[in-house]
Specification:
Structural class: mainly alpha
Largest sheet: 2 strands, antiparallel
Strand content: under 5%
Helix content: over 70%
Radius of gyration: 19 Å
Number of domains: 1
Distance between the termini: 30 Å
Oligomer: single chain
CATH class: Mainly Alpha
Order of helices and strands: EEHHHHHHH
Number of helices: 7
């Protein structure tokens, strides 16, 4: 029996594969370095967040800092990078498995982020709705809920071929806006530290968070555009 061999740009388990081979080697090297820098700054941003929650913040707000930092900055950001073909640890994993890892990390991250946001909204509703940090947090939460619903529909989109492309685009961009608002909220949280006299961790936290945001969003858009076009 003769079995067909999938072409080089196809994944035998998951259809179109990330087309690493179609990029010039210089571009591939650049994207690998770019993602490595993103990982380092994500780690630094998470460290600054956990340092703030451990040393500076007191009372129940500690849980808010830990839950949102772990949910948005670690789990959900890494879930996005999991789909990139230029994230070192995922390059040897088939796209079908990466999608499962992405989904699991998104669900865990969403649960943590929603819990952290609900906690502070219950404890300090007026401050949360009036501060810039809180407003960005509310916007991130709203986009997260939309992204989560569209993510579920995305899993079922093969049954709705006429809406499949629109659902994928909606899920991608609602996820991007979720992380943009989450990162901006964290930056505004670090900005509050400046007024409290913690200039070192405040400035460092704002800087590495901004770099991580640019890296994660850029990686998400590149991955989405390549999968839509190829």
């Amino acid at each position: 029996m003769i079995t067909s061999i999938p072409p080089p740009n196809m994944d035998s388990e998951a259809g179109p594969k990330d087309l690493r081979g179609t990029l010039p080697s210089a571009a591939t090297v650049f994207l690998n370095i770019f993602n490595s820098i993103t990982y380092m700054n994500l780690g630094a941003a998470a460290f600054c967040g956990f340092f703030t929650g451990t040393i500076i913040v007191t009372g129940p707000l500690k849980s808010h800092v830990f839950l949102c930092t772990f949910g948005y900055i670690i789990m959900m950001s890494l879930a996005v990078l999991t789909l990139s073909p230029h994230s070192g640890w995922t390059t040897s994993i088939k796209y079908s498995l990466r999608k499962r890892i992405h989904g699991a990390m998104q669900v865990i991250g969403a649960a943590l982020a929603i819990s952290g946001s609900a906690l502070v909204m219950g404890l300090m509703p007026k401050w949360f709705s009036k501060s810039v940090h809180g407003i960005f947090g509310i916007m991130a939460l709203a986009c997260l809920c939309l992204s989560f619903v569209l993510g579920i529909l995305n899993v079922l989109s093969s049954r709705m071929p006429s809406l499949e492309r629109a659902i994928k685009i909606g899920h991608t961009f609602s996820g991007v806006f979720t992380l943009v608002f989450a990162f901006l909220s964290l930056i505004m949280g670090f900005d509050v530290l400046l007024s409290l006299g913690f200039n070192g961790v405040g400035i460092l936290g704002m800087l590495v968070t901004a770099i991580a945001m640019i890296g994660v969003v850029t990686s998400a858009l590149i991955t989405a555009l390549r999968r839509m076009c190829c």
